[in-house]
Amino acid sequence: MSLIDLSKQVALGVDIGGTNTKFGIVNHRGEVLDKGNLKTDAYDKVEDFIDALYEHVYPLMEKHGTEKHFDGIGVGAPNANYYKGTIELAPNLPWKGVIPFAELMTAKFNLPCTITNDANAAALGEMLFGAARGMKDFIMITLGTGVGSGIIANGNLIYGHDGFAGELGHTIVKPGGRKHWSTGSEGSLEAYASATGITITAKKMRAEFPESMLNQYPEDEINSKTVYECAMKEDPIAIEVFRYTGQKLGEALANFVMFSSPQAILLFGGVIKAGDFILKPTKLHMERNLLPIFRNKVQLVFSELDEADAAILGASALVWEK
Amino acid sequence: MSLIDLSKQVALGVDIGGTNTKFGIVNHRGEVLDKGNLKTDAYDKVEDFIDALYEHVYPLMEKHGTEKHFDGIGVGAPNANYYKGTIELAPNLPWKGVIPFAELMTAKFNLPCTITNDANAAALGEMLFGAARGMKDFIMITLGTGVGSGIIANGNLIYGHDGFAGELGHTIVKPGGRKHWSTGSEGSLEAYASATGITITAKKMRAEFPESMLNQYPEDEINSKTVYECAMKEDPIAIEVFRYTGQKLGEALANFVMFSSPQAILLFGGVIKAGDFILKPTKLHMERNLLPIFRNKVQLVFSELDEADAAILGASALVWEK
Q1: 3-state SS, one letter per residue, for chain A
Q2: What single DSSP character describes residue B213?
Q3: N or C: which terminus of chain A carries fewer CB neighbours within 10 A?
Q4: What pLDDT is recorded for position B78?
Q5: ipTM score assigned to the predicted complex
Q6: Residues of chain B found within 8 Å of residue A254, distances taken between Cβ atoms
Q7: Residue B62 neighbours by CB under 8 Å, 6+ apart
Q8: Which residues of chain B are within 8 Å of residue A293 when distances are taken between CB atoms?
Q9: Chain B partners of A166 at a C-beta cutoff of 8 Å?
């Protein structure tokens, strides 16, 4: 029996989104050696999806070594349950019900498979390879179409008793506030701080202020990108859209800090392209809602990871974190 | 060198409150073998307090064995920092500034000393000896003059990067809401769900409703106890005071559940004497603010520990938890 050369060991990282699935072969240094993607929504049956994934991945696996070089597969997916290896009732995926995803993957690939939700995977990626290297307590917030989160406390992901911890996007920041388009809850963080929430805020505000530059766009072109364009041209209403969003986000972050007292909060996802338009009000409203013992201690930073690779790195990190 | 007989090993648990300090000698089974107390606020200097504590404790230590039977000292105190062993800027204690409390204790008693905030100690006590035996994920909420909390995730207390995690009483449940009498924050959980908050709510409501039984008491007798008396006599305004309090508490608990997905939330402290008047609305508003994946899964229970012993048990648990 020969010793294993760690530098040659790799993992397969898979990030499953509602539309696209990305995958990559990653080594211990967090280098993505090879990558590819396929359409998630082209497969009505999960078994067909896994077969197609195998067809895509197998040539890369052959290129980078035999099975014995692969430590395992890590998967980030919406509504993934770490303890059970299942994907449960995911509204944005084509496969309904409770799917024993890890088991199906292992049967096909003959490799151990660990899954967790996409934001948890991103948090692990940041801890091993990104801006949170060396940190034992931080919170990752992903601001995309929705708002996701991963919480690291004392060096470990918080999974909760049932594997579903860290749904910070669904915490209520304004009781009785804006109704969420899919959950029906009132005043959740996601209803304000996601790209979808920003679009809603922008449409409301441009209706109130006819002089806003935002009114130069047709209704279906109002989104966080066009709001950013107007903000860059100093449209005060567009700037106010981000300020309001940052206020709601900052108020929520203050509550999160008083829960787990993290060293840093990492922000990630499309919404952070708005830069200081959103970061400054977020920081202001976080600080003003904190108890004095927490003030000016929490770093509020944007993710360092390349967005295209982050999800794959995060998923692969699951393999080595176990 | 002889083997140590675990059944004979004991710990000293100390619970420091603003007015009184309780202490006890506790064995591995969570039995309080002996206990006592002294006035915290009778000692302007922390060194004098520790000398007095030693005078009180020493006779009990002699009775229950020599130093070699004592595994250590555990202390629960407001604003105690687990990592540094300090008590920092505690507004309700007579000793100002940053006090190296654990170090001073060790110098006097010649025993290792671990300290944490009182609600964290209570959470440990529940995990080792109380209603949370065998649980790895739960949240302890203490509803007394203030609102404290201790969070257990994956079997460990969450301390945060700086030792101050778990200040859930200061999370904001109603942005722009009731101003807190000492922190100045607006709409914190403590401003509504503490005994102090209930008194404020009761005074407001009785002024609005002259027919309420609450108006039969002089102003300085309005508190959670008299509100309870009126509620028991079916005064609808007194019942509404608890319903409103439970709503705010339930909304806050829903957010906590979506953070760490605990198996249970344990409630402890004077306020829980209101029983179902507060428990039912709390449960209702917690459930209605939860995402469906979390609903009807979290046990909401009152602490099982005897209130007089709980603080001592919790503090002593620190010694064995290390």
Answers
A1: CCCCCHHHCEEEEEEECCCEEEEEEEECCCCEEEEEEEEHHHCCCHHHHHHHHHHHHHHHHHHCCCHHHEEEEEEECCCEECCCCEEECCCCCCCCCEECHHHHHHHHHCCCEEEECHHHHHHHHHHHHCCCCCCCCEEEEEECCCEEEEEEECCEECCCCCCCCCCHHHCECCCCCCECCCCCCECEHHHHHCHHHHHHHHHHHHHHCCCCHHHHCCHHHCCHHHHHHHHHCCCHHHHHHHHHHHHHHHHHHHHHHHHHCCCEEEEECHHHHHCHHHHHHHHHHHHHCCCHHHCCCCEEEECCCCHHHHHHHHHHHHHHHC
A2: G
A3: N
A4: 87
A5: 0.91
A6: 171-172
A7: none
A8: 79, 88-89, 164, 167
A9: 258-261
**Residue A56 identity (one-letter amino acid):** H
The mean of the pLDDT values for chain A is 93
Structure tokens at B14: 């100390």
Asked whether the beta carbons of B189 and B169 are under 8 A apart, the reply is yes
Contact B118, B166 (CB under 8 A): no
pLDDT tens-place string over residues B131-141:
999 999 999 99
pLDDT tens-place string over residues A114-134: 999 888 999 999 998 889 999
Cβ–Cβ gap B259/A170 under 8 Å: no
List A36's β-bridge partners, or say none.
Answer: A23
Nearest CA in chain B to A169: B258
- Residues B121 and B115: their CA atoms lie apart, in Å, by 8
Is there a contact between A175 and B251 if contact means CB atoms under 8 Å apart? Answer: yes
Residues of B in contact with A185 (CB under 8 A): 289, 291
**In which region does residue A28 sit, left (phi positive, over 0), alpha (psi from -120 to 50) or beta (all else)?**
alpha
pLDDT at residue number A147: 94
Which chain A residue has the Cα nearest residue B185? A289
Instruction: Find the angle CA(B262)-CA(B278)-CA(B15) to the nearest 5 degrees.
Output: 65
pLDDT classification of A1: cutoffs 50, 70, 90: very low
Report the C-alpha gap between B11 and B51 in whole angstroms. 19
**CB distance B258–A297 less than 8 Å?**
no
Helices (H), B130-235: 189-193, 195-208, 224-232
- For the stretch A6-30, pLDDT in tens is 667 899 999 998 889 999 999 988 8
Cβ distance A19 to A41 under 8 Å? yes
Domains in chain A with CATH codes:
6-125+308-321 (3.30.420.40), 134-303 (3.30.420.40)
CB A58 within 8 A of CB A12: no
Whether pLDDT at B100 is above 90: yes
Q: Best residue in B171, B190, B299 to probe A by mutation, most A CBs within 10 Å? A: B171
Residue A2 has pLDDT above 50, yes or no: no
Token pair recorded at residue A267 = 């922000």
Average pLDDT for A54-80: 88
Chain B positions touching A172 (Cβ under 8 A) are 251, 254-255, 289
Across the interface, do B256 and A261 touch by the CB < 8 Å criterion? no
Among the listed residues B40, B80, B77, B76, the one whose alpha carbon sits nearest the alpha carbon of residue B56? B40
Q: B153 contacts in A (CB within 8 Å)?
A: 153, 158, 160, 165
The A-side interface with B (CB below 8 A) comprises 79, 88-89, 135-137, 151, 153-154, 156, 158-168, 170-175, 183, 185, 251, 254-256, 258-263, 289, 291-294, 297
| Percent over 90 (pLDDT), chain B | 79
What's residue A90's pLDDT? Answer: 83
Distance from CA of A186 to the nearest CA of B (A): 8
